[in-house]
Amino acid sequence: MSTPSAAADGSRENKVYCTCPRRCKGGKLVSRSTRERHQGELQRTQGQISPSTNLRNAGRAGVQPTMERGPGNFQQDQDKEWGTAGPSNSENQEIDIDNADRDNPFDEPDDIHDNSMPADRDAFGSDDDEPDARTPVPGSDDGINDDPTQSSSDSALEINLDNLRECQDFIDFIKAASLGDGQCGMLADDIESLMEPATERLFDENTTDPDFRLSLDCYLACSNASQDVYNKMRDAIKRRYPDSEILSYDQISRLVRNLSGVVPIIHDMCVNSCMAYTSPFSPLRACRFCSAPRYMSRKGKPIAPEDIIDDGVGALIPRLQFHTIPLGPQLQPLFRDPKSANNMKHRQIRTRKILRELQVNNVDFPTEYDDVYCGQDYLEAVRSGDIGEDEVLVVWSQDGAQLYQSKKSDAWIGIWTVMELSPHIRYKKDFVLPGAVIPGPNNPKHLDSFIFPSLHHVGALQNHGLRVWDASENRVRTKHPYVLYGTTDSVAAADLNGWVGHHGRKGCRYMCGLNGRHKPRTPHYFPVLLQPRNCAIIASNHPDVDINSLKASTPEDYQHNLQRILASPNQTQYKVMRRETGITKPSLFSGLSAITPIPRLFPGDCMHRDGLNLPELLLGLWRGTLESGTGDDKSTWDWAVLTGKVWEDHGKEVASCKKYIPVSLESHAPRNPAEKISSGYKASEYMVYLYGLGPGLLYGILPDIYWHHYCKVVHGIRTIHRPVIHQESLARALQLLLEFVLEFETLYYQRDMARFRFIRQCVHALIHMIPEVLCVGSPACPSNPFANLSRRAVIREQINALKAMIPDLELEKPCLPRGSLDVGQGYALVFPRESGASLISHPQHVAAISSYVQSKGIASSAIDENNILLERWERLRLPGGSTLILNGEPRLAEAQYFAQIQINASKHTVALVRLFSNWDTDLFRDSHETLMVCQLYGEHGSGYHATDGFFVTDVKDITSVVAMVPFRHRNNSSEYFLYEKLGFDHTSGRISQDSEEDSDVESDEDD
After folding, report:
1. What is the distance of C-alpha 651 from the center of its chain?
2. How does 120-139 read in b/e, with b if 16+ C-beta sit within 10 Å?
3. Which residues, other chains included, contact 392 with Cβ-Cβ below 8 Å and sequence gap of 6+?
4. Distance between CA atoms of residues 725 and 86, nearest Å
5. Helix extents (H) in 611-700
6. SS (H, E, C) 813-848
7. Could you name the domain of life of the organism this protein comes from (predicted)?
8. Tell me: the pLDDT tens digits for 150-162?
9. Which has the minimum average pLDDT: 198-212, 282-296, 305-319, 575-589?
10. What is the per-residue burial (b if ≥16 Cβ within 10 Å, else e) of 93-104?
11. How far apart are the first and last CA of the chain?
12. Closest CA to 484 of 385, 606, 377, 332
């Protein structure tokens, strides 16, 4: 059997990477002594380039100069490539495979560079030594900042405080990042594979060899199982087919690693999760926060730093490590198959279309928002030339995860989302790229040290460029990652962006400048707009704040305030500046050269805000469970009505809605909140409960003034979750959300300082929610469980990389259920069905069928209404998402059954439905367009002309699935209210683009 050779790690461990421009042309494998000689020559002749150098402008391909990108590059003729002005940027970056110079993969033609940097100048700095092992060899304890590059982006500004200098050290390393420096952490073989990508598709004899393919299929099938499962499967196959040469688990895992090119970077970390031994922390031998030793003996006993004698490789065993999965090797496979490479061109195609529409309509920004490409942040970067065709847009996201419900088991996970892809696929598991897995059991105390390897790698790719082979064009192109956004929840945002937390005086995540208010002798500030009564605290007694004056901070404001923080001469002044600016430190992301300008780099967190924080606050008020302040009598809380039996009955009504909501619409309908809300109610349940069912279920329970107020926030949140958001809708939603925030303080806080705790950042953030849509676009996640989580993340991405290069490896192919009948255009009749045709005797059904047949040109005299036979089906699968289109207007209907009718030579697939009336317009208006109550025709005397509400229609007139839930708060028992999934627009019948599965319409027929 022929299989790929699995080269052992470290086959070139005697080689190191030299980045000197004179002899190695920016990157070459040489011996250690050769690199030291080259670096010595470089230092003697010209010295070091400061890491503060703007590498993006100085030269993005190592030592090679690049063409400057000018503004207005996208106002070109439509037949020109959008990108840089002048010669096509794609031409500058493309390399013909047949004529490519493989000695230096970063070399580009010399004659295309206009504003060049001297070719012999080292733009990336160097390190004195570079260990070969993936785990860095510890150095001395003389100091943690032993890198020769000392100056920073704020070289003219002296940083006096140790904590700020430490942050700047991390940033400087990222600014000067290269794949060959001592901070990279990648082996020489891995760097070479990254710099010289394969230029052929991955479908040679390896993928056609039956034993290798069987081994690979078994490995993929067991990717979520244990290694033992694969071994048992292998043993069973060999018992049945003794001559088969199915590979062992170790063999196939090494081959997958080599074929995918995805290899983790491993660093030591504190055993208590405090910090990682990266960058300036790499020489330390004990945690600087808890003093826990870094190393242990072979018997597992911790070794105190003073007891370390031998620093040799292998003599010291790290007590705990974490994995970083570098971005570059994960991006390259996305270009190595023609289909996947074409998927990566979605952004380019969509951007051209948007720019043409803006030019035709003579406007600066779109009137509809359906993706980040419509946001001002992206379009302004495109127009300025910061984003072109050779950028790869990515978004960094991180969040904490608790692995076990019953014990402390925190872990942090970072991921990359590739924004080049269509929103239909970019959020699916096969295309979400893991970035880092930070083990628990505790939260990190120095998060920057953990995410540093990820950002350092991205910084190196921005400085050098990432060579990819585009299989759709059969040529190598140089790409540059562009970090569009960095996202996390509000609690972790302070570590990511370097701002004060949500309880700070300026705790707004959008840095709008609002000064919070606090109670006596309490350190927490709250974003209260209205001045409290009888308040003697100077910091809290400022006048009412005009809600219309609160604007998000600009990059210029942020930089000005950051300089004030960095210039703090002592700790006392630092605290003053921190309170006045809302900034605690520079963000680690500022070391990257290609990012959305800070603070716009860090948008809001709609998932936690809408799905957890705001629901918990509202329900805490309505249930009266929020803690009351001193002097605040809960008996005055006239809004606290969800108590006792009212709360119990309401919880049962919420749970009863499950049988009315199709599984295809919501796979997890909300449970009884009266029973489950204290034991882990999920964000998805809160979203369905409060923003979908809430207006109908809480009508008549909440006092009218509070119900009307609540409907305003429901309207706003439903608006931003639509698949396409129109400017007119945004204007209306903004008005209602501003009213909600002001009325929230008037109704609940009532200028009582004891109720400051009611006014939280999740309420204040609603002020900025609609303006953010304009900027960001539509917001359309064992014995050692943490080590196991890291291993699975690596395996998952190795498998994803293989699937991108070999689409045939996808085992789960979409298909219709067994026994289904495909009726075209994505529609299908689905089991169960009758075993044979049956007589239709229901007079209203007969009348509806007869009316449909006559509409197709058959005379009524030719229809025998006493002998209509149909084979009925119970379910219908839709192509994308039940509303019904009748005469061009959307209507609501309840499906009874589905069937096929033969009329002349044509077979028609139809649905017999029962229509609902149009919704109650008065209630729709009073609820701010959030509650649509209809009557079901045919119940208790409500009729619909001759067929009493029954109607036969072609199944392709059914556009989507909705739920109709009984509305029990008025005397009419035939009333129902509409529930539609967030992301659905009832005016157009469109489901959100992130719907991954087809939707099934279930009939209501019992017999």
Report:
1. 32
2. ebbbbbbbeebbeebbbbbb
3. 331, 344, 418, 420, 466, 479, 480, 481, 482
4. 35
5. 614-623, 644-656, 673-676, 683-688, 694-697
6. CCCCCCCCEEEECCEEEEEEECCCCEECCCHHHHHH
7. Eukaryota
8. 334 444 578 889 9
9. 198-212
10. bbbeeeebeeeb
11. 59
12. 377
pLDDT above 50 for 55: no
- Can you give the pLDDT at residue 960? 78
With bands split at pLDDT 50, 70 and 90, how would you rate the model's confidence at 388? very high
Instruction: Please choose, from the candidates 699, 717, 709, 707, the residue with its C-alpha nearest in 3D space to the C-alpha of residue 975.
Output: 699
pLDDT > 90? residue 204:
no
> Tell me, what's the pLDDT at 606?
84
Backbone angles phi, psi at 335, to 5 degrees: -105, -5
C-alpha to C-alpha distances, 554 to 107, 377, 406, 579, 598, nearest whole angstrom? 38, 12, 44, 18, 8
Q: Determine the average pLDDT of the residues in 354-378.
A: 92
Q: In the numeric block, which tokens belong to residue 467?
A: 């060579």
Buried-exposed string 435-456: b where 16+ CB fall within 10 A, e elsewhere: bbbbbbbebbbbbbbbbbbbbb
With tokens 């330390």, the residue in question is 284
Name the percent of the chain lying above pLDDT 70: 74
pLDDT, tens digit (0-9, with 9 covering 90-100), for 232-289: 999 999 898 888 888 898 888 888 877 777 788 999 999 999 999 998 999 999 999 9
What residues are paired with 934 via a beta bridge?
976
Please state, in angstroms and rounded to a whole number, the distance separating the CA atoms of residues 166 and 785.
Answer: 32
Q: Residue 322 gets which letter from DSSP?
A: E
Give the closest residue to 983 by CA, choosing from 957, 967, 962: 962
DSSP secondary structure string, 944-996?
BTBTTTEEEEEGGGEEE--EEEE--SSS-TTEEEEE--TT-BTTTTB--TT--
What's the length of the chain? 1007
Report the C-alpha gap between 982 and 721 in whole angstroms. 6
Angle, nearest 10°, between helix axes 727-744 and 704-720? 140
Quick one: tokens of 678? 């204290």
Cα separation, 966 vs 936, whole angstroms:
10
Max Cα distance, the chain (Å): 104
Task: Check pLDDT > 50 for residue 727.
Answer: yes
CB-count exposure of residue 630 (10 Å: 0-12, 13-18, 19+): exposed
Residue 225 Cα to chain centre, angstroms = 26
Say if residue 580's pLDDT is above 90. yes
Residue 308: what pLDDT? 84
Comparing C-alpha atoms, which of 369, 984, 894, 973 is closest to residue 691?
A: 984
Q: Is the per-residue pLDDT at 135 higher than 60?
A: no
Q: How far apart are CA 598 and CA 602, in angstroms?
A: 7
Of 198-202, 613-617, 810-814, 931-935, the least confident: 810-814
Q: Which residues contact 624 (CB under 8 A, 6 or more apart)?
A: 634, 637, 640, 642, 643
DSSP run (H or E) holding 886: strand 883-886
How far is it, in rounded angstroms, from Cα 934 to Cα 911?
A: 21
Which of 191-205, 398-412, 782-796, 893-907 is predicted with the least confidence, judged by mean pLDDT?
782-796
d(C-alpha 495, C-alpha 170), whole Å:
14
**Measured distance CA(693)–CA(784) in Å, rounded:** 41
Percentage of residues in the chain having pLDDT higher than 90: 42
Model pTM score: 0.76
Asked if the model's pLDDT at residue 920 lies above 70, the reply is yes
Give the integer Cα–Cα distance in Å for 978 and 229: 47
DSSP lists the bridge partners of residue 726 as 368
What values do phi and psi take at 850, rounded to 5?
A: -60, -40
> In angstroms, rounded to a whole number, what is the distance separating the alpha carbons of residues 502 and 494?
8
DSSP three-state, residue 88: coil
